[in-house]
Amino acid sequence: MKRLLLVCTAVLLACGTSYGWARVAHDTVAKIAENHLSPKAKKMLDKYLDGKPISYYASHADEFKPEWLMDLGFEPSNAKRKVTFPHTFSVDDNYNILRGQRDGDKFVKNCVYMADEFAADLKANHRTMGDSLRMLKIVMLVHWLGDMHCPKHIRYPEDQTIGYYKVKWRGRSVRYHDVWDGVFFDEQHPWGLVDCAEMLDDCNKSEIKAITSGDVYDWGVDIAKRARCANKFKEGDVIDIHAFRINYRDLAETAVRDAGYRLAKLFNEIFK
Fold first, then answer.
1. Secondary structure element (H or E) that encloses residue 268, with its range
2. 180-207 residue pLDDT tens
3. pTM, whole model, 2 decimals?
4. Angstrom distance (rounded) from CA 188 to CA 27
5. In order of start, what are the domains of the chain with their CATH numbers?
6. How far apart, in whole angstroms, are the C-alpha atoms of residue 85 and residue 66?
7. Strand intervals (E) in 52-145
8. Residue of 123, 117, 164, 168 whose CA lies nearest to 140
9. Of the ranges 107-116, 121-130, 189-198, 262-271, which one carries the lowest mean pLDDT score?
10. 97 - beta bridge partners?
11. For helices 241-270 and 216-227, what crossing angle results, to 10°?
12. Which of 24, 45, 114, 172 shows the greatest Cβ crowding within 10 Å of its Cβ?
C-alpha cells in the first residue's frame, strides 16, 4: 500500500506528453462534469480527492510507469519500458466496440472497456477500497471519459493509425493525431477552463438526458459514428485551417461537452 500511495502521488504530479485531449479540453470535460454532480457525488468526491475538484486531476494521467500497471493487476512483460494505459478504442464497420487485447509488452485493452470496469468497481467497492487505489481509479475514470471522446482516439477498419502520420498545419509538419489531441481545440479556445466550460455547457435538462442515455458502450458508439468524418486526411495533406474550423469545430466542442455530461452521470450513479 505504501508503494501504491507513492504511485498515486506520482499520478497527481505527472505532466507529460498528451495521449488524449490536451489540458484545456480534459479540464473542460471535468469542469462541466462538476457543474452537474449530485450533492452526494460532490460530497464523496470531495472526501476522496482531499477537497480538490476533479478538474484538478483531469489532465494528470497521461504518462504511467509499468509499476502502476502492476499495482492494478496488469503484468507488462518488460518492466523497463514505459507502458501506458489504454487511451483508445476500436470499432468494426458497424460500430461494434472491440474489447482489445494484449500485444506483446503493450497493454491495449480499450479505454471504453476500462472506464466501464473501473466505474463498476468503484460503485461496488468505493467504501472499502484503499484510499490510494480509489483515488487512482477516480482519476483514471475522469481521464478516460475525455479520451474516449477524442476523435483521433478511435480506430476504424479503414484507419488503425489514430492519426500517427504527418500533415501540414499552419506551414508546420505535425502529426494529425496531435491536431486533435490539443492543437485545434486549444487554438479555438484560448481561455481558462471556467470560461470554456461556461461556453460549452449550454444544454437544457432534456437535452442532457438524451446525451447521457445508455451506458459507456453506447457513448462510445455515438462518438465513433460522429467522429468518423475526421478520417478524411492522409499523410502529407495540407490542412486548410479555415475550412477545418468550419467543418470540425462543432464536433470538437460537442465531444468535450458530452464527455462532461456523461462523466457526471457516471459519478452520480457510482455515488448514489
1. helix 241-270
2. 987 777 777 666 667 889 889 999 999 9
3. 0.85
4. 15
5. 2-270 (1.10.575.10)
6. 9
7. 89-91, 97-98, 102-103, 106-107
8. 117
9. 189-198
10. 91
11. 180
12. 114
